[in-house]
Structures are given as C-alpha cells and as structure tokens.
C-alpha cells in the first residue's frame, strides 16, 4: 500500500504519485515539452524540473524511447522519440523523502499523411508549357508549412504558408517550359511542416514521384 493509502495504480507510478487530498505538497514538480502535438515518429525535448533545492532523485517515466541530454540538481532534459499514439509523460522528483509527480499529455497527429503531386498534361512537346501542382489536404495546428517542387534534386519552386486560425488546404503550382531531358527526371514535392515556432523540429514528407513524357 502506498504511503497515502492508494490502491490500483500502475506499479511504476505507485512510488511516485501522492493521492489527491491525502498528502501535503511540500514542493512542486514541473514538466515542459517543446511541443504538445507531435507527428508519429517525431523526436523532441522534454524538461523535468522542481523547486526543491536538493532533490534525492528525479526523472521522466514514459514507455517511449528517452535519452538524458543534460541535467543539474533541479532539472533534467530528455530527448524523447518513437511516439505512435497519444501518451502521458510523467516527471517526478523525491525531496526530503517525499515524492511528487507531474503529468503532461502529448497528442499525436498525422498532419502530412498525404502530399499529392500532379503534372498537367503528362505528355507534352518540347518547348510547350506544362503545370506542376502539389497539394496537401486540410492541415491544421502548424506554425509554417513549405511546399518545395523538385525536378530530381533541383528545386524549381517553393511556397510557404503561415499559421491560420483553422484548417487549410495548401496548394503550390508552377508552370514550366518542357525541355527534352525533362523526361529523364522524376518530379516530386517535398512538404516541410513546423508545428511550433520555438521548436527546431521539422516534419517532412515527399510525394510519390511523377514522370513527364516529352516528345518532339
């Protein structure tokens, strides 16, 4: 039985959680995350800290992959990865024999499930115009989104969309005169998504490649 008389909690948290209303809080535990919504497979930083000046122990409890990046007496910074679904992160510290825990929920999003590229027309004569269009269906909860139109590894065009109040469809188009060797290169679109301005983490996805049939 826990010191506060609680039953039925996961074993990993029994030693960390003080039941509401049954213990006095002598110190505080804080948790800060670079992001609150992440893309599946994303890596980001989480800070656990406390106002206890000399904690005996502290850390981060999670089923995700975690690596300790840096630490001092009152804080620890972790690199967290391999998220595939919504999950709770638990920061804990022990101070003067008392244990405190702070929980933060991280939501998982699939913002770049589709990056669609279209060539129109798909068969053109040398020296005639054709259009490259890249489209990402309704996207939300982002700081900025950039669509980059590529011919092989060459950047033809890029367009950046800033944060809006609600979901929006992002479309970038580029017109080009067909060259004879265009038929020897794949055309593709790379979407780069920044979820938060204070995070350097960029999520990206590349469309299926498309070929242009050039004749004449």
UniProtKB/TrEMBL annotation:
Record's bilayer topology term: Single-pass type I membrane protein
InterPro entries attached to this UniProt entry: ICAM_N, ICAM_VCAM, ICAM_VCAM_N, Ig-like_dom_sf, Ig-like_fold
Keyword Glycoprotein: yes
Location in or out of the cell: Membrane
Gene3D superfamilies documented for this protein: Immunoglobulins
Entry keywords, A to Z: Cell adhesion, Disulfide bond, Glycoprotein, Immunoglobulin domain, Membrane, Repeat, Signal, Transmembrane, Transmembrane helix
Superkingdom field: Eukaryota
Keyword Transcription: no
PANTHER family: INTERCELLULAR ADHESION MOLECULE, INTERCELLULAR ADHESION MOLECULE 2
UniProt similarity note: Belongs to the immunoglobulin superfamily. ICAM family.
Official protein name in the record: Intercellular adhesion molecule 2 isoform X4
Organism listed in the record: Equus przewalskii
Gene that this polypeptide is encoded by: ICAM2
